[in-house]
Amino acid sequence: MTTKKYAFSASILLIVATVTVNTLGSFQGLRRAQSVRRSLQATSYLEDKVLPFDAICPAETPPKHGTLHNKNEKVIAHYNNFMTGVTSRLNKGDDTPQLVTRKNVKYAFWNKGSQYQASMWALKNPNDFLDAEKGGFMKPKPEDAKKVRAKVFKGDWAVFHGMWFKSYGHFGHDHLPTIAFLRESVPKSTKFLLMDHPIARRAIQEIDPTFYRRITWIQPNTVYHIMGSLTVAVRREFTHPVGCCGQFDPLRNWMANSLPEDPPKKTVVYYQRRGSGSKSRLLDEENERQVLEHIAAAMQRQGLTEKLVLFNGRNPETNETMSVYDQFRLFRSAKTVIGPEGSGIGGNFVYTKPNPQNCDERVQLLEFMGGRDTPEIHDGTTMATHYQSIRKWPIEYHNIYFTPESNKWTTFVNLDELDSALNAMWGNSEVNLPTSSNVVVA
Predict the structure, then answer these.
(1) In angstroms, rounded to a whole number, what is the distance separating the alpha carbons of residues 349 and 434?
(2) In this predicted model, what pLDDT tens digit does every residue of 61-77 receive, in sequence order?
(3) Tell me, what's the pLDDT at 113?
(4) Which three-class secondary structure state does DSSP give residue 41?
(5) Is the pLDDT of residue 214 over 90?
(6) Cα distances (angstroms) measured from residue 120 to each of 93, 128, 355
(7) Which residues of 224-251 are buried (b: 16+ CB within 10 A; e: fewer)?
């Protein structure tokens, strides 16, 4: 990892690292990752599965909302009520996908904007199809059913399709959990068909080179013939992670076994959208400088020995993106992750510690987000974060809102609210604002 040192008034060292947000770079680190895996896979803890999600922090399961740090108790009450209402609906029912296996079928996934719905139907009868529209499967159109086959696949296969498959963030929190579920559910002899994109190729190759060799990459709007069996995972809803809360457990098992490294030097990771290639929701430059100074000062005040690490999309010396393995290594080292909502958090929180044993061992996440007072940011929607997926990972979740002067392009955070959040996460508070943990909701 390339580093660069910056001095801050709090005399805390800030290490600048970089990580990609929308695209992934070279395969740097792959040999190193494979070597680490080979040396660590003999350790005994890899033979055990991670604790089920609901056994890690039972008092906060099912999750309702994070902890909002704000000066206004009415704002906090609205946050609690709104988030609880949304997550209560999302939490209803089991979130385990339904496995469907059929023999001798046709399969295709269709380019429908960002959604990429799929179809699976009998070889000789397009009316005999998998009817699961909410789960992302549709009846093939007559003209589609007649398309010439691209290739015949013989044997036993599993397939996954998902929305926004060209997005690094959505690949991390939408695709990987279901791929992991399928991987854990079918025999090791089963081969996989996955949507072809550099993000998926590079991520899976670095996460698990052995599993990567079981994959054949397929293209949209192409009909494939399966002369054997095809298994799909049908989620209750294709576009929302409904149900609670074991859906990510197979992914946590996969991360703990394929990427077992637990870096001894822990970090506080700050995600900076500036420099990542993103043009929207950039924290005001002066405000961001103050945010970093306040984080460094809080670390010093609370006696934290972790390094403060900034990643912003590019290596400052080479202008190259960071490999998936190095992204994993950075987030696996994190005690706390801080920053504005975006793919830099949404695509990487699944690399944080997968196997905490209790509430206190969870990684902390402080996410800056929009709310009712910032209508230009996601139309003022409070839930415009990745919390719908984050709630299924063992994370201690905190929020502060962008301040009212924020707009689509430039954002600000209140430094007192930041201090309140940092002190609440790390120790006794010198700035004791109301939070969603100590405000009574009528």
Answers:
(1) 27
(2) 999 999 999 999 999 99
(3) 60
(4) coil
(5) yes
(6) 26, 9, 36
(7) bbbebbbbbbbbbebeebbbbbbbbbbb
